[in-house]
C-alpha cells in the first residue's frame, strides 16, 4: 500500500491572498507569533539605558551566545552601539508594567518604581525578574533599520520564580493552563 501524494487545495478560504512584502506585512505576521519578553540594559556615560525586546534568541550553547535586535533609531542604540556588556532580563507575567515602561518612548525607565542594582561588569540588573544574564557584546550586525547584537554570556542567575510574560497580538499576555 502506498500513500497518496498530497494534493493542492482549491478551497479559497484555506489560505489568504498573498501580499507583497512590506513592513506592514511583517508586523501583521509577527503579531500572530507569541514571543517571550525581555529587557536589555546597559550602562551609559549619562546613566543606564534599556529597552523591551521580543527578539531574544539563543544562538549557541558552546560558547553560550545569544542575539537580539535593536532599532538604530531607538534611544538606547547609541549606548548599545559602543558598550562592551549588556544585561538580558527575562520578565515574568507580573512585570507587564515594567515591560511597558521600557517600551515607552521618553519614560524614566530606571526611576521609581523600577527596582535595579549595578551588577557584574557595571551592567544594570533589574530586580524580580525570572532570570538575568550579563553578556559581552561580540558583534553588531547591520540588518535594515536594526542591528542584530550577538553577545556571549559571562554571568547570570536563572533562579527567579513565576511564569514568563509573553507578547502576542500587540499586547502583553500570560500563558494559559
TrEMBL record:
Keyword Oxidoreductase: yes
Biased composition (Low complexity): 1-18
Membrane-spanning residues: none
Any one Pfam family match given in the protein's UniProt record, by short name: Flavin_Reduct
Region named Disordered: 1-21
Keyword Oxidoreductase: yes
InterPro entries: Flavin_Rdtase-like_dom, NADH-dep_flavin_reductase, Split_barrel_FMN-bd
Keywords: Oxidoreductase
Domain Flavin reductase like: from-to ranges: 30-174
Identification of the protein by name: Flavin reductase family protein
Source lineage: Bacteria, Bacillati, Actinomycetota, Actinomycetes, Kitasatosporales
